[in-house]
Description:
Elements: E1 19-22, H1 25-33, E2 39-42, E3 45-49, E4 53-55, E5 59-63, E6 69-73, E7 79-81, E8 85-89, E9 91-94, E10 97-98, E11 107-109, E12 114-118, E13 121-123, E14 126-127, E15 143-145, E16 150-154, E17 157-159, E18 162-163, E19 172-174, E20 177-181, E21 184-186
Parallel strand pairs: 1-2, 2-5, 3-6, 4-7, 5-8, 6-9, 7-11, 8-12, 9-13, 10-14, 11-15, 12-16, 13-17, 14-18, 15-19, 16-20, 17-21
Amino acid sequence: SPPIAPPSPPPSPHPPGDVMSVNTTAELLFAIFGTAIPNITLSGGTYALSGELVLSRDVVLRAAPNATVVIRQQAGRVIHVQPAVVSLIGLEIRGGRLGRHGRGGGVYVASGARLTLIGITVTGNHVGNSDYWIGAPGSGGGIYIAGGTTVMMDGCTVSGNSADYMGSGGGITNDGHLLLRNTLLTGNGGRGSCDQ
């Protein structure tokens, strides 16, 4: 007899336009990759990633009111924004680490993306390799903005990020269009554009 076809998945309980609230990393990943919901609210806590968070569709990620929300990387880059319209609001992005020729330990903004950051803290991210024999520079320890992008930062802090081995942009490397408003860059290490 012919094989039985698997049942069709049930319709999403979250129609387009809804806001979805998440409390765990698994819920966050499902909201981004398993739904088309454009507005995702993160409850307070730490969202630990085991790989970079790729944002390839129009989406808003925001911290719940009065919540402290940390998105932390355990291996590699924290967030990769592909060509899409993305807003990140009230989050802390930390722990990204890339080795040789790495770009954007905290956030990498690919060509064609439009990114708005409001009340974001980018801290404790690193690119490059400081070993004398295999050293290779990195760019944008905190944030790397590729050409052909538009990024707006309002009320943000970029601090304590680094780019090793003659790397450029310990805090931010910008090759696109960047608007900074009420934003603090401090305590970042690197050699090149927008180190602080």
